[in-house]
Design a protein that fits this description.
single chain, five-stranded mixed sheet, elongated
């Protein structure tokens, strides 16, 4: 919100307030028009959160969120400017118009909905069981007789406890680093963790051929839009709906997460 200098008279203050009120709705709908006119769009993305966004060996951003950003820009006929952000500043980039969209593993909750708007979901974010390609795990029953590493008290620990069959050897570690170390070193055959942690393991240890096996909990990602930018939000929703129908969302998810996007909330 713009700050106004205190006026010396009540009439001037009232005029300024009225001008502000009249101009705000117009300003709030400019983003899509500006993108289509300039043929450029600024999209905030992560670069430290594989497999959603990270810097590749060519020093360029890559990952599911980057693919989605490029996809939307292409559908809008615009050149994309990728802007690296962190979890702490990504919402502020929308509020200060430094970005038109935020595609950065953004979950939707009531507090965030007070300050920004959200499109339909575009990708899953989940906790799951991962293991090497050679480890046969098709159902939770297949975990019987196998060792699974998990961080004590984490969400995946709670979710695994609900579905783990008798006979599974659940090895609990005190922090994520220890859980990862145990899996990478072969102390456990599988690991129950988040998609982002598994992505880091896959990136740093390709020799393990780690892959997605079983879903524990799904928490989808949404695209952030500045509050009131309904034209841009609805246009992006159209693109997401078309991508879902064509199978493009499933292809992106399969490439980076090892599973289709599946059913996602609107």
């Amino acid at each position: 919100m713009k700050a106004f200098t205190r006026r010396t008279t009540l009439s001037l203050l009232g005029a300024a307030s009225l001008a502000c009120c009249l101009s705000s709705p117009v300003q709030a709908q400019n983003a899509l028009d500006n993108v289509l006119k300039s043929r450029e769009i600024k999209i905030a993305i992560p670069t430290d959160y594989p497999p959603y966004g990270f810097v590749g060996t060519d020093l360029k951003p890559q990952g599911l969120d980057i693919d989605m950003a490029n996809y939307i820009a292409t559908k809008l006929g615009a050149k994309v400017e990728l802007i690296p952000v962190t979890s702490a500043n990504r919402i502020a980039y929308l509020q200060t118009q430094k970005a038109d969209l935020v595609i950065s593993t953004l979950g939707k909750n009531p507090d965030r909905e007070k300050v920004i708007d959200f499109t339909a979901a575009y990708s899953p974010f989940f906790q799951a069981v991962f293991a090497g390609k050679s480890v046969a795990i098709k159902s939770f029953a297949d975990l019987a007789g196998k060792s699974v590493g998990v961080t004590r008290g984490a969400m995946e620990d709670q979710e695994l406890a609900k579905v783990a069959p008798a006979g599974v050897d659940v090895k609990r570690f005190e922090d994520h680093a220890a859980t990862i170390s145990a899996f990478v070193s072969g102390q456990t055959q599988a690991i129950a963790t988040s998609a982002s942690t598994a992505g880091t393991i896959m990136q740093k240890n390709p020799n393990l051929a780690t892959e997605y096996k079983l879903l524990l909990k799904d928490s989808p990602n949404f695209i952030g839009v500045a509050k009131g930018e309904d034209k841009l939000r609805l246009k992006v929703n159209e693109i997401i709906a078309e991508a879902k129908k064509s199978g493009d969302l499933d292809k992106m998810s399969q490439r980076w997460l090892g599973r289709p996007a599946g059913d996602l909330p609107q």
